[in-house]
Amino acid sequence: MQLDKDDIKRYIPHREPFLFVDEVTAFDLGKSIQANVTFHDDAYFFKGHFPDNPVVPGVIIIEAMAQVGGILIYKSYEETLFGLSPALVGIDNVKFKSPTLPGDTLVIETLLLKRKLNIFKLTAKAYNNKKLVVQADITATTMSK
Predict the structure, then answer these.
(1) Is the dihedral of CA 101, 14, 125, 36 positive or negative?
(2) What is the pLDDT of residues 40-89, one digit of tens each?
(3) Which residue numbers are catalytic?
């Protein structure tokens, strides 16, 4: 299953300039997702991080990973979660292996490890040219709007 930006916007509330997921390339309901995120040279955060040596801020990559996880959760359980907003609860075991630069495309692979009521435990890895650049464990929930 593939999803484009318009499809993605049906599942998470994020919008430009804070929507970082470009497309979903693989999906296994309730189990896993793979998505692409490209950080274009003109992204707003490169102006200040850092002007002479631009690098994608780690928190932006983590946010992109959380958005991919949100798509997995909301697409997998859309009947029961419809009308609820996502909320990031925790980020653990984060490791940054190498920088992400302007023009880089990350492939984010996320697995849903556990669901208990509306608490979701995920693990995510981001790759640049098949090389692991970031990994993290994410805990998310849903809440009323």
Answers:
(1) negative
(2) 999 999 999 999 999 999 999 999 999 999 999 999 999 999 889 999 99
(3) 49
